[in-house]
Design goal:
4 copies of one chain form a homotetramer.
Chain A lengths: L3 E4 L3 H12 L4 E4 L7 H5 L3 E2 L3 H7 L2 E4 L4 H8 L14 E4 L5 H13 L3 E4 L2 E2 L2 H5 L4 E5 L2 H14 L2 E6 L3 H30 L3 H9 L6 H6 L14 H18 L4 H15 L10 H8 L5
Parallel strand pairs in A: 1-2, 1-4, 2-3, 4-5, 5-6, 8-9
Antiparallel strand pairs in A: 7-8
GO molecular function (chains A, B, C, D): NAD binding; NADP binding; oxidoreductase activity
InterPro entries (chains A, B, C, D): 3-OH-isobutyrate_DH-rel_CS, 6-PGluconate_DH-like_C_sf, 6PGD_dom2, 6PGDH_NADP-bd, HIBADH-like_NADP-bd, HIBADH-related, HIBADH-related_NP60_sf, NAD(P)-bd_dom_sf
Pfam family, one (chains A, B, C, D): NAD_binding_2
């Protein structure tokens, strides 16, 4: 494509933009705090003064922001991304937001003659940097086909899962298991530990067992030593759980393990651990079991 | 070792005995229903008329039975295994039983001058037949070292995790995640499906995501088509959950996801699904979500 | 007070208005569907063409609507209640809405020089008609003192619990126990019944035990025979549970029994029972226990 | 009846025995620690050297012990109560034990030509002393009719609920709501408190609301000030919850609120609060909400 735009150049978004630049794309970017994007300007990215300006410049515009409210903030209003869209343009939101909000936004994008795709990613910063990110895409197939080669410059596994909003739905349906698996894993470690098995041994056995999902493999060792910086903090994890529970209520799907696990994320928050990686749910349960995390 | 004994020649136990025979060991076996062991007699196994007779004949005696009650049944009484034990003999229980019961039995074995190991296995019939079974062992290290080569004829990965009862503790601490992961997985599939994503697509995406533990990988497809025969049925799964919950109460470890998930296994039982593979927990949740399993 | 206004003349609101008329107050009313308020016009109520018109006419204006969205609908916009408020007027919302939304609205009311009270009620239509309704009030004490005598014409027990939004907070904190107590009661009835005790006997014993709250006393018999018309349906009950869970997340209070119970209300919804009294949660659990409700 | 016997003269049993003496019955008693029964001997009770001796002396024998194990201990063996039973005698167990164990014991009593009733009580020491205890009875109706006048000397409300074991079943089905209602109540208090409502006010409002069961009324104030001595401690409460969960598994009744609440009793235990009244579940949740109990 002739020209790309990127709005939201934080930890994930910035690295995605970098990969697009590295792949040879012309790119205009916008971030609420310009200074945080200076390193990308140094790499050749152009600056757009507003999300609208970015959208006016580019043929395909990507967003990567924190939540539904942030997405509404960069897309709405006179300086918003929507105002800069028009026929032929494709807007790709890579954030994890409410599927309902995503679909509503897609309708407004369509009303301007443009097309929208939701394209949330699965994986962490490390996965992204290694070039192993998985990307699910929701929206019209023709728009998908046009955008697919660009998305592959961000991550190799790009899958079309259905219409607008369905990729974020699938993402949320996946992510609820992250927290639940981590809490169940913690239950197992604490049972073993209080039985008399050293925590290290318990973790090692579990990491080699049939319950060792990739998530358990990279996050399990955190119960021995928490990471300096959260990979995915309690706040972000609970945001996804809340989206899942909201979907469950709208679609009439009971979510028993999600609901119970979410209360332990709330406990983590209450205990001041909101900025920790959500693996800290182990520490919450350990306290409840009367032992040192 | 000069001679081995095996008590409990059911689906798992019989195949273990077969592997021991295939490895060249002399073996005397006992099963409550003799006819079910005929195929092993045809393969060269000798018959012992009682568990006690097997124990008197052999230097190392293995058991593989359904639960704590079955273990007490084959070990106790005048014809029981215990009565046939004496100095120098090693008794290896491969069943998944209550850690407390296992430790108590180990004490009675020691009182007769023999040694006991708990050696529960991780994996299904298929894993066993492929020769990939993992075996955790609890008990004295010297007894472990003597038995290790024999266990390796059953499955290659043999790990000593600590004193008596700790291997079954570790097994139970692992297994609770099987059911919890399966229920969380089902929540995700149903959320996706009611969002409008075909069930097949949802399963495929989840099986390639970070939540895809080996358990999820082989059991996830069961939500599309249940297996003819259960790999691990609701009854067996709930037995392990009950053991976990019992341990949690004795050791003061709260087990929130285990407790909640167990109520759905009870529901499966109430709905007449007790003989199905525990993946049927998906069907239970599907009914509660008002859709056809 | 010289003149009262009432917006939202449904099942509860209409009967409240009737009591105000019966107490001799001059009253102007508004309802989305005018025909449903005809009986009140016949009793002497005057009609206001819009919520704004009602607010312009009256000194104290009451609202009783379904939820937060309905409240925003009757208060906002050019025809909304807010536009008709001014210095000296008092706006009393008797609905159960989000405490945050209530506080935000109170600020907007204050900006127009008027005062707002949140005054949710505790009790059903029957309690109201018997003149036994309890009313909790949040907001400034001086406004409370002015309105108190009027509220006492609706129900005798009027309590000031604190500042704006705190009465709805207290209401929601109370209501979560309705659903939880009902589900726990159902667990007890089903345990007794499957033990072999006739359901009627089980209910009778429970209704005379220490767990028999007023709620259990009037709703318990519903497990023998559901009422023709819901007193408080699944939809309304879940609305309050969702408000509680939302508060729990904002205030960092884990709500384990609320969270679990809410998933059974979702199940009721999925099974097509959304319009039934929430006592139907018994029928949901009965199905899960494999017996006829 | 000519002569009564009583085994288990602790806090509850002792006061029951006192009431029987006060009603003019001849009574022989036994307690593991004789010194604790001295006050009853001073009131005219005779001493039996073993449970068997008591059973041999008396026509109707009552037991009141801690749990299933204690009941088996006083009834079994050569000195046990069973050995002293014979035709025409009636054995009344007032403890709360496993319904299955109660039924099994009733069969053994019948084999000796005697009859057994299970007659658990509902209410605390205070209720007993005020003469307001409720007693549910399971077993043959003819035996019930003979014992009824004696039970009425202990407490006025005596109800026959069905065959052997059904009274303890009904008791357990009732008691699960005690813990669940207390946890739900705690959720409400903490939500209110973190909203800004003083804890005292929140408790007062809740105690006057429709959720105020007798249990909530007498135990609710404990969240303001715990009692010096537990009325019903965490250990006893969890014993009943475990019996309920065990019944649920045998009878295939899912018990979602019971299961979740029980994990918080386990947490109380882990935090060293096992001897506190089970109202301490509030303190557990308060810690999890990050505030001082």
């Amino acid at each position: 494509m002739a020209h790309l735009g990127f709005v939201g150049l934080g930890v994930m978004g910035g690295r995605m933009a970098k990969r697009l630049l590295a792949a040879g794309h012309a790119l205009t970017g916008y971030n609420r705090t310009k200074s945080k994007a200076q390193w990308l300007l140094d790499l050749g990215m152009k600056w757009g003064d507003t999300p609208r300006a970015v959208a006016e410049t580019a043929d395909a515009i990507f967003t990567m922001v924190t939540n539904t409210e942030a997405l509404q903030s960069v897309t709405g209003g006179p300086d918003g991304l929507l105002a800069g869209l028009g026929p032929g343009k494709i807007f790709v939101d890579m954030s994890t937001v409410s599927p309902a909000a995503s679909r509503e936004l897609a309708a407004r994008v369509a009303a301007r003659g443009a097309q929208m795709l939701d394209a949330p990613v699965s994986g962490s910063v490390a996965t992204l940097e290694e070039g192993n990110l998985s990307i699910m895409v929701g929206g019209d197939r023709d728009a998908f086909e046009k955008i697919k080669p660009i998305l592959q410059d961000i991550g190799p596994k790009v899958t079309h899962v259905g219409g607008n909003g369905l990729a974020v739905s699938m993402k949320i349906a996946t992510n609820l298991s992250l927290a639940v698996q981590m809490l169940a894993f913690s239950e197992g470690v604490l049972l073993a530990e209080k039985s008399g098995i050293p925590r290290e041994t318990a973790v090692e056995v579990l990491l080699h067992s049939v319950i060792a999902s990739p998530m358990v493999k990279y996050r399990g060792p955190f119960v021995l030593k928490m990471p300096e910086e959260a990979w995915f903090d309690v706040n972000m994890m609970q945001k996804d759980m809340n989206l899942a529970l909201e979907m469950g209520r709208h679609l009439d799907v009971p979510l028993p393990t999600t609901a119970v696990t979410n209360e332990f994320l709330t406990t983590a928050r209450a205990l001041g651990l909101v900025k920790e990686d959500f693996a800290v749910i182990f520490a919450v349960l350990a306290r409840m079991a009367g032992i040192k995390p």
